[in-house]
Amino acid sequence: MRQMGFYFNQERCTGCYTCSIACKDWNNIPAGLVNWRKIKKVEEGKFPDLFLAYLSTACNHCVNPPCIKACPTEAIVKRELDGIVVVDRERCIGKKECGSKCLKVCPWNVPQFSSEINAKMQKCDLCLDRLEKGQQTICVEACPMYALDVGTIDKLQEKYGTHTEAKGFIYNEKIKPSIVFKTKK
């Protein structure tokens, strides 16, 4: 099976939020707490020895996604064709009914719920609509610093290496998130 995933170059990211805003715009996500692509500021040290980096993450389209096993209605599936983890929002019974089980098992807090009482789960689908047309994902296309890339994990590893950890991100060997990093040092 082909496994699609992300590459993120932490050395290039300036925390400008362009990838996150482009994602919200492309996917018609209203202003508010729901963000399919999150930016995390990583600060370490004490003056004068300071360290600052940013971490841009979305759904990691894991090899063994725990959210699939946690979903009581099988609304979350992993596509056999490319390993992309997708949500059927029609099958999702909502955060109130199931208690956000998918969110509770995700180490990276990827599943998103709006503030509605029984909101349905939503998350990055790797811009399936764009990929199926041969286009790049909107976050990669929008990044002014060329800090993101999307492709099959084997091609990303061939191009960028096999590093799976970055400042602010801890890799989980059991879940195997589909991501390759260039870490800021």
- Which of globular, elongated, flat, extended, rod-shaped describes the shape? globular
Based on the structure given, which CATH architecture is correct? 2-Layer Sandwich
Proportion in helices: 10-25%
- Briefly note the structural class of the backbone: alpha+beta
Order of helices and strands: EHEEHEEHHHHEHE
Count the domains: 1
Q: Output the radius of gyration.
A: 16 Å
**What are the segments in which pLDDT stays under 50 over at least 5 consecutive residues?**
none
- What is the strand content? 15-25%
Distance between the termini: 34 Å
List keywords for this structure.
globular, 7 strands, Alpha-Beta Plaits, three-stranded mixed beta sheet, alpha+beta, two-stranded antiparallel sheet, 7 helices, 22% helix, 185 residues
Question: Could you characterize what this model shows?
Answer:
The chain is of the alpha+beta class. The chain has a single domain (4-182), classed as 2-Layer Sandwich (Alpha-Beta Plaits). Helices cover 22% and strands 21% of the residues. The protein is built from 7 helices and 7 strands. It has helices at 18-26, 66-70, 95-98, 101-105, 128-131, 138-142, 153-160, and strands at 4-9, 38-46, 49-57, 76-78, 85-87, 148-152, 179-182. Strands 6-1-7 form a 3-stranded mixed beta sheet, covered by helices on one side. A two-stranded antiparallel sheet has the order 2-3. The longest helix is centred in the N-terminal third of the chain and has 9 residues, at 18-26. It starts with a strand and ends with a strand.
